[in-house]
Sequence to fold (688 residues):
Amino acid sequence: MSVIEAIVFYIFAGLLVFSSVFILFGRNIIRSAMWLMAALGAVAALLLLLGANYLAAVQLVLYIGGVLVLIVFGVMLTAKSPYIRYDVKLHEQIAGFVVGGLLLAGLLVALLNSPWPKPPGVVSDQAASVRDFGERLLTSYWLPFELVSLLLLAVMVGAAVLARPEKR
Amino acid sequence: MSDIFVPWRKRPPRHDAGPSGLVARLAVGLYRIGSPIVRRFPGTLFILASTAAILATGAIGYGMYTIYRLSEMSLPMGPDAKPATVVEIQERLSQLGLPVPATVVWCFQSSLVRDVVALLGIIAFVSVLAMFAIWWERKVSAHIQSRLGPMRVGGWHGWSQSLADGLKLIGKEDLIPTEADRPLYRLAPYLAFVPALAAFIFLPFGAYWVMRDLDVALIILLAVLAIEVIGVLVGGWASNNKWSVYGALREACQVVSYEIPMGISLLVPVMIAGSLRLSDIAGSQQGGWFHWLAWHSPWAFLAMFLYFIASLAACKRAPFDLPEAESELVAGFHTEYSGFRWSLFFFAEYAAMFLVSGLLVILFLGGWDAPWAGLDDWLGRALGWHWLISLSQSQNPYDRLFHGVFFSGPLWFIGKAMVLVYVQLWLRWTLPRLRIDQVLYSCVQVMLPLTIVVLVASAVWEMAVQEMPGFSVFASLISPVIAFIGILGCGSAAAAIITGTIGRRALVGTMAVERPLRGG
Fold:
């Protein structure tokens, strides 16, 4: 890793940590959404730095659109005052800690069980090209791919059912 | 009742202390000195500035060339060239008895020079493009309404009107409503403008005329266009004004729904070309009008129109200009903005217009190819003019320049994209605005099913062309027919423009006068 790469890495890693903390402790939902966008953008930048162009692009497309939808439908359409602030109740805090703790434990188990740093040859300089990625998705990983699309289909049908006007 | 008769709030103290005040005073001073000169010699200054820019680029390039020449290394040209490192060049130079310090070599290393020149070029191009497009929009709208439009600033047809407006906007007070969400309000214009600028990094203007040739350039461009929408949304929200919020909400709903047909219709050329790299897609259509993807199959032809309609919605042009509907929402999302921040939104809008048009040109209309691009090869072979065939690979830069101007090059790309920008302007001033429910209906119930049908049909068509020999013969017969339909369409549009230009004096209005009346 060259010096410039290291500097860029620390800038974006710092931005990621900084903005994640602000998502947690912000009280204004719109600003939290903007910090979320900054965090997701920093992840995309880190992916670009690793040479994973496709993942970075998809990260941007999906999550920027996601933040947009979050602001519009999650906040604007349910807003009562111009600055929505939220107060977290105790049971919500407990649920949050449980879910977060489980996620952290899972990530730590995965991290500590993998050899670190990766032996040379496992991680190439250039991450897989789009063509490789697509071929892998449709050959060796077809089952998770189809399951995810089935899940999305179920979500779409569910949304359509919910949005349908009631029949009399 | 007493609530109503609140006295005026105290005016906030002026912010002309500190660094921003210094900048403001500097700007005012510059204006006082500069404006008489600009007013007196606009054309001369314009020519001088362009010449200076070209000379500066040439000087940097010449410095790089000299260092490579002195170190007897070959210049890194072409796509796969690997430029020599600073250490290599310096070692070579000191072997030859020329101890050039490393800092000098570092400044002229090819990757750095290339990036700096490309970035400056992009910024300059976007600025000139936005200013030209604003002037052009005013002229086109005026002519469509049988007016003259800006006629005075700078002389010929008010050509420096946007320049003067830009100076005026920089000098204006930067108003922020007291109840606005200040940080977000100040952030929003940059969130709209910077992505529009950044997208040009990935947009190829010609073969090798691209700053970063990513293998996922198409997806990155779409992502960047989506970030711009967040700028608009946040700006409308942070203004804390009902018109702004309505505008922002409309923009978000519209873009979220039109992104889907836009993305799906873009998949059609991607499927045909088999790549997400924009320069590959454009490169696969080299060879003139009949090779362009728009005429490749009936489905690609349809997909082009679907993409164009969706792109109108994506950069909020009429008939989808609901976010800034000036007849209902004052000015929509930018109601509260003034001065330079306001102009940033407009720079972003015109840059996005060029971007979506450029994307259409690359994906469907052959990129940087002239309509007769294959003609040089054909003529060379038919008439035995061998110099014509090897023109594009020639070592002589003048040969390549000739080939670029007449057969394929960035000028062609910009020209084609500008024609599409003109179509967008033309549509804006001739079509009425839709209602938001009509916009969403036309997306979800018309465009979306149509694009999915086009995508599936195009996939089946491509498969049949590859698998069934009889069908591929049929497809190769169909594609010239569509190409001729395209020629007819372009020809009739050109004929309409020419007859309109000839008959413009028959119109009622100031267009009949041709030049401003004396004293009026």
